[in-house]
Specification:
By secondary structure, the protein is α/β, with parallel strands linked by helices. It is built from ten helices and 15 strands. The chain has a nine-stranded mixed beta sheet with strand order 14-13-12-11-7-10-9-8-15. A six-stranded parallel beta sheet has the order 3-2-1-4-5-6, with helices on both faces. Strand 9 and strand 10 form a beta hairpin. It starts with a strand and ends with a strand.
C-alpha cells in the first residue's frame, strides 16, 4: 500500500514515523528537502512535485501542509481518486470546499479530518458518560486550552510557524480547534455563539492569540471556551455540569473525576499514568487505514469537519462585528 504524506513539519514527521510501524506500507513524501536523515532512515520516497507523487498512484494521502493550502491540495488529490486524510483544521475559509465535496461524491472517496483527541481515552470516556446520561441534563460546560506558543517547538522560531501567521491560516481558533471539535462531537452543533477574539499578548505574531467563545445549544446548555497562545504553565481542561453531577477532566494528570450529587462524593473514573499522547495519533491512523481497507465511511469525514469549521469561522465573524451569530 502506497501512502503519500504532503508536508514535512512536526505533524507530517509524526505521521511518517507512525506509518513506518506498519508492514507493507510504502511511504511517499512531498517536501522541498532533498537530503534528510530521518526520511532516509524511514526509507521514504521523496518527491518535489505533487504531479510526480500522484503518478505513483497512492491509495491515500495525508495532507499536513499549512492550513491555507489544504483545500487546493485536496482538490488535486481527489481528482486523482486518492482517499484523503486532512490534518486539522480542514481549512481557514470555505473557499473550494463545495468543489471538493462534489469530487469526493463523484469518485466515492473516503475522507477523514485529523483530530486525534477523539482517540484519547479520557475524551472517549467523557463522551460515553454524557451518552449514558450519568450527569443528567447538561446545563453548563467550561473548556480551557492555554499554552505558550514559543514553547511548542523550541527548535524553531515561533514567529515563522504557521500557527503565528494569518496568511498561512494560523491563529488560536483554527490551530486549537480540537476543543471545538470534541465539543461538537459531544453535543452537536450550537444554535448560536458570541466571541471576543484577537491579538492581545506581547507575542510577535500576526494571528489572533486569544479567543473566548460563548455557545448556546438546543437544550439551553451553555458552553464557555477559552483558547490562548500565552498561558504559562499550560492547561487543558474540561468541566461539565449537569443536573445529576459534575465532571472534571485535566490533561496534566489525564484524570476524569465525577461528582455524584446523591453521595456527595468525587469518584475517579479514569487516571492514566505516563500516558503517551502518540497513541492517539497511532489509533487515529489505524482507524483511517482500516476504514479505507473496509471501504467504510468514517466519523469526522470532510462533511463533519466542515461543520466544525463553520463554528470556528462564526467565532471569528462574531468578534469582528461584535454580534451574536446564529448557526441554525
Amino acid at each position: 500500500m502506497k501512502i503519500l504524506v504532503i508536508g514535512y513539519g512536526s505533524i507530517g514527521k509524526r505521521h511518517i514515523n507512525n506509518l513506518s510501524t506498519i508492514p507493507k506500507i510504502e511511504i511517499l513524501v512531498l517536501t522541498k528537502r532533498k537530503n534528510d536523515d530521518f526520511l532516509k532512515k524511514m526509507k521514504c520516497k521523496i518527491f518535489n512535485s505533487l504531479d510526480e507523487a500522484i503518478n505513483e498512484k497512492p491509495m491515500a494521502a495525508f495532507i499536513t501542509n499549512t492550513t491555507n493550502l489544504h483545500i487546493q491540495t485536496a482538490i488535486k488529490l481527489a481528482n486523482a481518486k486518492i482517499n484523503l486524510f486532512i490534518e486539522k483544521p480542514l481549512s481557514h475559509s470555505f473557499k473550494g470546499i463545495s468543489e471538493l465535496l462534489k469530487i469526493i461524491k463523484k469518485y466515492k472517496l473516503l475522507t477523514y479530518v485529523g483530530c486525534n483527541l477523539r482517540f484519547h481515552p479520557c475524551i472517549k470516556l467523557i463522551k460515553q458518560i454524557i451518552s449514558d446520561k450519568e450527569l443528567g441534563r447538561i446545563i453548563s460546560i467550561h473548556i480551557e486550552n492555554g499554552s505558550y506558543l514559543p514553547e511548542w517547538h523550541p527548535y524553531e522560531d515561533y514567529k515563522k510557524s504557521y500557527a503565528a501567521q494569518n496568511k498561512m491560516g494560523g491563529g488560536v481558533i483554527p490551530t486549537c480547534i480540537h476543543e471545538l471539535d470534541y465539543l461538537y462531537w459531544f453535543f452537536g452543533k450550537p444554535i448560536e455563539l458570541f466571541s471576543f477574539t484577537g491579538k492581545f499578548s506581547d507575542l510577535k505574531i500576526s494571528a489572533d492569540d486569544l479567543s473566548t467563545i460563548l455557545m448556546k445549544f438546543k437544550n439551553k446548555c451553555i458552553a464557555e471556551i477559552h483558547l490562548d497562545y500565552f498561558q504559562r504553565p499550560g492547561i487543558r481542561s474540561c468541566k461539565i455540569i449537569g443536573t445529576k453531577g459534575t465532571l472534571n477532566w485535566n490533561s496534566d494528570t489525564n484524570s476524569v473525576f465525577v461528582y455524584n450529587i446523591k453521595t456527595k462524593k468525587w469518584m475517579t473514573r479514569m487516571k492514566l499514568r505516563n500516558y503517551d499522547l502518540n497513541l492517539t495519533y497511532l489509533n487515529e491512523m489505524h482507524y483511517f487505514l482500516n476504514s479505507i481497507n473496509q471501504r467504510k465511511i468514517m466519523n469526522n469525514d470532510i462533511k463533519e469537519g466542515t461543520e466544525v469549521l463553520k463554528i470556528a469561522l462564526a467565532a471569528k465573524i462574531s468578534s469582528k462585528y461584535s454580534k451574536v451569530i446564529s448557526l441554525t
